[in-house]
Specification:
One of its GO terms (molecular function) is magnesium ion binding. InterPro entries: ADC_synthase, Chorismate_C, IsoChor_synthase, MenF, MenF-like. The protein has 452 residues and is of the alpha+beta class. It has 2 domains: 160 residues, 4-Layer Sandwich (Anthranilate synthase), CATH 3.60.120; 256 residues, Anthranilate synthase, CATH 3.60.120.10. It contains 12 helices and 23 strands. Strands 1, 2, 3, 4, 8, 9, 10, 11, 12, 13, 19, 22 and 23 form a 13-stranded mixed β-sheet that branches. Strands 5, 6, 7, 14, 15, 16, 17, 18, 20 and 21 form a 10-stranded antiparallel β-sheet that branches. Helix 1 runs antiparallel to helix 4 and helix 2 runs antiparallel to helix 7. The protein starts with a strand and ends with a helix. Bound molecules: the ligand C=C(O[C@H]1C=CC=C(C(=O)O)[C@@H]1O)C(=O)O and magnesium ion.
Length: 452
């Protein structure tokens, strides 16, 4: 049987929705699925006028998702109530008729602090409509939440969303943005003070690593379309995760991050230590030499080691077995390269994604070591609110969950683009070199946004 085009699959699903029969004993999420031949998902998402909009592509390109609307939206503005989140999640995911319910969302860098409006300290949702590409299959899914409303009401809402879908439009490369001004927080002089303090023996003896970061606020004449920017970013770093959350037309958070927090398939977990950075060479020889220097460099290996050791010690009580790959490898991006160590674990059967998120996030690749002291120092000294930058974003489902670390990211708002970059500060860090590392980490997105 030939696979339906998206427009035919939408009509077929609409027909099926209209014919649904109300069994009053039904509860939870009812999911309708059609196999479909999909258009390019980012182009499709960019063309839609309904919110929220979510995009996700895993680093190994095994899953790509574009989703709009929601039938369940869990937003934690004042505090994250883990037990409530977990309870609601389990209630929706352990029902016999839920084929494959996924919760997409994110957790802020420091969930004990106020975060960005709309994004909250944590926000997870079950979309109304999802387009999913997985390995060789592609599906259109519609989710109905029978715990919140009657079947008839949910059907009506789903039909309205399907009726307003727009066809995908080709995405053109983004126009260069006119930057009126750029404000860095912290600025270089404050950054130097902070790096000097963190590397001083008096501080270092209790908190040996802090990942300091900077917000670069670009005031622009016109905010670009987030999906056009993300599509271009994806082209430059295809081996990174790409994701975006746009809860309303005004604000969007996009990321093209190389870093995985974890991927879990049943009880098999893959995570990693990604920290330690240098630039790419202009020739293959120079690139190789830079990679070797990075592998041999004491400060950078130490920077990575804090992350690996912490992850292994957090995973050990949750796992039957934990293995960290030896030796360290190199992860190459468009402008920079990182030290990389893969860590695998077989989880104990009673371990939930919420436990994993709590124990792994934030790793010393974005926070520091010890975690609590580093987070306190960041909150008191960095001078801006990180929100979802260096937070974690991804999806939860009963069989498969995956989260990326939200670095190499941008928050787009009316009239400004906020870019973020951080660097691990420890013994051996030099303020000017670490500042240059921040610039190197922004090089790809800056080359997409502005003319040099
Ligand atoms: C915190 C960031 O990068 C982390 C991940 C990889 C390498 C890092 C480093 O070498 O400092 C950082 O720990 C960022 O890009 O904003
Ligand atoms: Mg570094």
């Amino acid at each position: 049987m030939s696979v339906l085009s998206l427009s035919k699959a939408v009509s077929s699903l609409s027909d099926r929705l209209s014919q649904l029969f109300d069994h009053s004993q039904q509860s939870g999420i009812l999911q309708l699925v059609e196999d479909v031949s999909l258009p390019p998902l980012m182009s499709w998402l960019a063309a839609q006028n309904q919110f929220p909009k979510i995009y996700w592509q895993g680093r190994d390109r095994r899953e790509e998702v574009a989703a709009i609307g929601s039938c369940l939206d869990l937003s934690f503005i004042e505090a994250v109530d883990d037990s409530k989140l977990q309870q609601i999640y389990q209630q929706y995911c352990q029902q016999p008729h839920s084929v494959d319910v996924r919760f997409y969302g994110g957790v802020a860098f420091d969930r004990t602090l106020p975060s960005w409006p709309e994004f909250g300290r944590a926000r997870f949702l079950v979309p109304r409509v999802e387009l999913r590409r997985q390995e060789d299959s592609a599906q259109l899914l519609v989710n109905l939440n029978l715990n919140e409303q009657s079947l008839a009401q949910q059907v009506q809402q789903a039909l309205a969303v399907l009726a307003q879908l727009c066809p995908a439009q080709p995405l053109l490369p983004p126009q260069k943005t006119e930057v009126l001004s750029r404000v860095d927080v912290p600025d270089f002089s404050r950054w130097s003070q902070l790096v000097t303090e963190v590397t001083s023996p008096a501080f270092n003896c209790h908190t040996p690593k802090v990942v300091l970061s900077r917000q670069s606020k670009l005031h622009v004449t016109q905010t670009p379309d987030p999906w056009t920017v993300l599509a271009c970013w994806q082209g430059r770093n295809p081996t990174s995760f790409q994701f975006g959350f746009q809860f309303s037309p005004e604000h969007s958070f996009i990321s093209c991050t190389p870093e995985r927090l974890y991927r879990r398939r049943q009880d098999q977990l893959v995570t990693e230590a990604l920290a330690g950075t240098t630039v790419r060479g202009l020739t293959a020889d120079e690139d190789e030499k830079l990679a070797q220097q990075l592998l041999d460099d004491h400060k950078n290996s130490h920077e990575n080691q804090f992350v690996g050791t912490h992850i292994v010690s957090e995973l050990t009580p949750l796992s039957v077995q934990v293995n960290a790959d030896e030796p360290l490898k190199i992860f190459k991006l468009n402008h920079i390269q990182h030290l990389h160590r893969v860590i695998k674990a077989q989880l104990r059967h009673d371990v939930s994604d919420f436990q994993l998120l709590q124990s792994l996030h934030p790793t010393p690749a974005v926070g520091g070591f010890p975690k609590k002291a580093a987070l306190q120092y960041i909150a008191a000294n960095e001078g801006y609110n990180r929100g979802w930058y260096a937070g974690t974003c991804g999806f939860l489902s009963s069989q498969l969950s995956e989260f990326a670390v939200a670095i190499r990211s941008a928050l787009l708002e009316p009239g400004c683009i906020n870019l973020f970059a951080g660097a691990g500060i420890l013994t051996g860090s030099d303020p000017s070199l670490e500042w240059q590392e921040l610039e190197n980490k922004l090089a790809t997105i800056m080359s997409i946004l502005v003319d040099f």
